[in-house]
Amino acid sequence: MFSKFTSILQHAVEALAPSLPLQEDFVYHWKAITHYYIETSDDKAPVTDTNIPSHLEQMLDILTQEEGERESGETGPCMEYLLHHKILETLYTLGKADCPPGMKQQVLTFYTKLLAHIRQPLLPHINVHRPVQKLVRLCGEVLAAPTENEEIQFLCIVCAKLKQDPYLVNFFLENKSKRPETKSSERAEQVKENVLAPDTGQSLAEEQADCPEEPQAAAAASTSSPTNNNNNSSNYNLVTSLLNLTKSPDGRIVVKACEGLMLLVSLPEPAAAKCLTENTELCELLTDRLVSFYKALPQSMDPLDIETVESVNWGLDVYNLKEDAAVFTGKRALISFLSWLDYCDQLIKEAHKSAAAVMARAVRERFFVSVMEPQLMQTSEVGILTSTALLNRIIRQVTSEALLQEMVYFLLGEEREPETPATVAQNPLRHRLIEHCDHLSDEISIMTLRLFEQLIQKPNQHILHSLVLRSLEERNYLENKPQEEREPLENGQPHDAVDLEEDPLFGDDLSPNSRLSGSDWLSSSPPQSPDHSKCDGKTEVHKIVNSFLCLVPDEAKSSYHVEGTGYDTYLRDAHRQFRDYCGVCQRWDWRGNPKPFEKCNLDIPFFEGHFLKVLFDRMGRILDQPYDVNLQVTAVLSKLSLLPHPHLHEYLLDPYISLAPGCRSLFSVIVRVVGDLMLRIHRIPDFTPKLLLVRKRLLGLEPEGINIDHMTLLEGVIVLEEFCKELAAIAFVKYHAAASSSP
Q1: What PANTHER family has UniProt attached to this entry (predicted)?
Q2: 515 with 543: CB under 8 angstroms?
Q3: Which of 141, 205, 349, 598 sits most deeply, having the most CB atoms within 10 A of its CB?
Q4: What phi and psi values does residue 174 have, to the nearest 5 degrees?
């Protein structure tokens, strides 16, 4: 009761007293704090029962007022007093001893508000950054400590200040060899014995040897310069304290700690980036938690649940356990995993380039290789399906360049040389994943094809090089022999060529003489030919388009019976997707023209590569595969056809290339499918009406009724027709994009 009365009386006296000059007022409040330690005998009373919080608040107000009254950047007498008398050192010592109880909380708040409210740069001062550095070490020492909230606020304001002036981070890289072990605790009596003398205003810090790790500087030398610390044995206590707080049971503290780390990894100082990855446990935190969340997932999950769960942003992980469990088992665990994956991805994206590379490599080695690879290589179909669906979701979510690169190397290997049949199994995981595109389980095939569809849309050149381009580099899929050495011609073509002129499916206007060469497709203006008066190229591209549109015979077509299913419906999508692909591939060195023949090594036997081989094999069985499998196979092939690479374009979209013996192209594969279809059509009674009925059912225009014979074949024919229309639209869009961009 007496202490409360004294406090009220003191406030009344302060209110009635004439206003003192700011410096006198500031010194008065500081000495009031120091007198407490000299005069009080009750060191167990909480700090909130004293006037210390009020005096500290008044000191902050005075410093803020003083700065507001002065020119920008000018240091006033109150701030000079704080720096000269090492008040922050003294407060640090009192906070470390937590004397009186709760003092640590008050000190943290004072430091936080001082750094936040004062606009002039304070951290360059040795009497600021040194006690700040030591206070940082006190943060995160105890999990769920009562001061956790103040600790994280303090650490985050320090991080924000470093983000404003990144070079200052070098103050926070401490050389381990210079820092002695500090005592684990200090008695409150020691603090009281060494407190400021009331007549001199000198600080505790001048009389204590608590901070011998830095050279003592004269108070007159108010600032110091950071030096780059390239020593491998440096402590980065700011990171260590934040890492400790990421283990807090309070989710809000964890998010703030993660935000602080995000600021620190983005600092451009090379010494800090090196120290971050070599002398802290940041990589361990990222990977251990990622592994922990992954292992908490159910062994079996519905791929549709994995694919459709809402997008997750770290830090916005609001959830309801009961609602999540009602949607599907494991939703909460899945969201936690995806949320932490998003944090890892964003952290690596923001990080200094050297730190990003190290963190991404750690995720590859400790998560992808150690945890995911055994899951993907297992023989259990349920396990394969779940792990492949999770990998697909991971691929979709990763956006950082460094993490994407490491993930691609994990999945596909780092090899650059062309594939041969003998080397397809060189990388076991890559081989297994591609084989899963043709798995006995249709579900696994579809999910793996989706994975590759997702993968080839990522902005990473190595993906496309590894899967397809390295096999097409030398253009050795083309006939190499001089005309006189080629095999005898049959009807003007080699005996194994796709004979379009003589095929009854194609008209006379599809002569190879009117086709576009590989270079014409992508880079040059439409050529003038003696056979055609038009010089705008429309006749030629029309023939190219027709070569795809006429592949499926009329009796096997059903789209013209249904409104809104013409070839033109694909043009808008093809235009948008091609434009998007061009944006992605713009920074890659993809020449407009194919590699000149004289520079190609055409003597090397052509191998289409494992990935294209499996896709072509699947395409060749389109009449005998389930509808959903066919949709996914054609989706992957259409994505590859959209790529603006001249060799891929030539190989997939030029119907008239002269293939080397034993080679096949996408067009030749489709022609053989059509040949098989022609033989089978005549064996099925009422083929066309049945085909139309199946199409209408697939479009939802007809209700499901009695089963129709040959359903798989009929659905395959419909997919084939739509795929040919899509390829025609892609060819049209790519040709005109090239023609319009030509000089």
Answers
A1: FHF COMPLEX SUBUNIT HOOK INTERACTING PROTEIN 2A (PTHR21705:SF10), RAI16 PROTEIN-RELATED (PTHR21705)
A2: yes
A3: 205
A4: -95, 135
Entry pTM: 0.84
Q: How do strand 234-235 and strand 489-490 relate by DSSP bridges? A: unpaired
**In this structure, what token pair is assigned to residue 640?**
């590859």
Q: How far apart are CA 96 and CA 419, in angstroms?
A: 64
Encoded tokens for 242 = 């934040």
Q: Which DSSP helix (H) or strand (E) runs through 544?
A: helix 538-549
Pair of tokens at residue 55: 């005096």
Q: How many Å apart are CA 638 and CA 670, to the nearest integer?
A: 13
Q: How many helices (H) and strands (E) does the chain have?
A: 34, 4
Domain ranges in the chain are 1-138, 537-741
Q: How far apart are CA 157 and CA 416, in angstroms?
A: 47
CA distance 48 to 33: 13
CA atoms within 13 A on the CB side of 234: 23
What are 601-659's pLDDT values in tens digits? Answer: 888 899 999 999 999 999 999 999 999 999 999 999 999 999 999 999 999 999 988 99
Q: Which residue has the tokens 């023989």?
A: 379
Whether the pLDDT of residue 564 is over 90: the answer is no
Predicted confidence (pLDDT) per residue in 409-456, tens digit? 999 999 999 999 999 999 999 999 999 999 999 999 999 999 999 999
3-state secondary structure (DSSP) of residue 123: coil
pLDDT in tens, 77-99: 999 999 999 999 999 999 999 98
For residue 403, the Cα-to-chain-centroid distance in whole angstroms is 6
Q: Which residues pair with 478 in a beta bridge?
A: 659
Q: What own/partner pairs with CB < 8 Å and gap ≥ 24 does 217-224 have?
A: 217/126, 219/83, 219/84, 219/85, 219/86, 219/127, 220/84, 221/126, 222/75, 222/80, 222/83, 222/84, 222/125, 222/126, 222/127, 223/124, 223/125, 223/126, 224/124, 224/125, 224/126, 224/129
* Residue pair 643/585 in contact by the 8 Å Cβ criterion: yes
Distance (Å, whole) CA 369 – CA 59: 56
- Per-residue pLDDT at 16 exceeds 50: no
Distance CA 258, CA 740 (A): 49
Q: How far apart are CA 647 and CA 643, in angstroms?
A: 10
pLDDT score of 214: 40
